[in-house]
Amino acid sequence: MRSLIPTLSALAASTALLGACQAGAATEPSGDPATRNGAVTTGGTASTTGTASVRLRCEVRSNRSKISVDGRNLRPATGTFSARAKSGANVATAGAKAAISGEAEFDFDSDPGDIAEGAVAIPAGFIVGSVTGEILDGTGAVVATATASCTAK
Q1: Where are the domains of the chain?
Q2: Which architecture does CATH list for 36-149?
Q3: Residues 6 or more apart in contact with residue 146 via CB below 8 angstroms
Q4: pTM of the predicted protein model
Q5: 111-138 confidence digits (pLDDT tens)
Q6: Residues in CB range of 105: below 8 A, 6 or more apart
Q7: Gap between the Cα atoms of 99 and 2, Å rounded
């Protein structure tokens, strides 16, 4: 019995830490995300079909456009999804990838370093006012969408 007490205490501490992480504790760096790095970043979340949702974040500068389209609560949880970003007349589509536990993340960027790391290449002037991000299922049907305003500072 004595040898189980430290193990149970460690298990309880690990469970509490995991619960805090799942609740979203400490998911963003400190500071105002709207003015971080001298750029304007905005985001939005919207749900369309069922419980699937999109977290949309965008950043625009005079020489850069950056968009993240993150799908949550996707079904099937291990299904194949793609993403589309639209702004003005501009449209870019990310290739299909398998969701992991109902989540799939897609990045669009004009920065060569981020493109080399897997982001879909978009021109620096891609963002024109607002951005719409969509998550598409394996058949090409939109399962979740969100729109956010991205105004240059």
Answers
A1: 36-149
A2: Sandwich (2.60)
A3: 44, 45, 46, 53, 54, 55, 56, 69, 132, 133
A4: 0.69
A5: 999 999 999 999 999 999 899 999 999 9
A6: 68, 69, 70, 71
A7: 43
